[in-house]
């Protein structure tokens, strides 16, 4: 079973949306976190160590992750989705964008289009 971590800044909009979209899949465990210290669920070394794949929403998240958690990264693959902070939680446009971007990595992702 793949362990997937979604990361944004505050863990309020983008990464929790991604987590919710994939939470019911039987072939993966998903979590989400934020890089900011005041995030709803702040990113920790334990979460980074847990993950097989880490999807970050922006390059700045990847940079923070690599700077602050380099020892915890181990074998985790980091993938930047390039999704700007322009969406509300579970906004249909964000859901579709996540589905499209993640279909490359999970070809069996059902889309809501």
UniProtKB/TrEMBL annotation:
Every Phosphotyrosine protein phosphatase I domain range: 2-109
InterPro entries membership: Ptyr_pPase, Ptyr_pPase_sf, UCP029416_PTP
Cross-referenced SUPFAM superfamilies: Phosphotyrosine protein phosphatases I (SSF52788)
Gene3D superfamilies the UniProt entry points to: 3.40.50.2300
Domain of life: Bacteria
Name of this protein: Protein tyrosine phosphatase
Organism per entry: Sphingomonas alpina
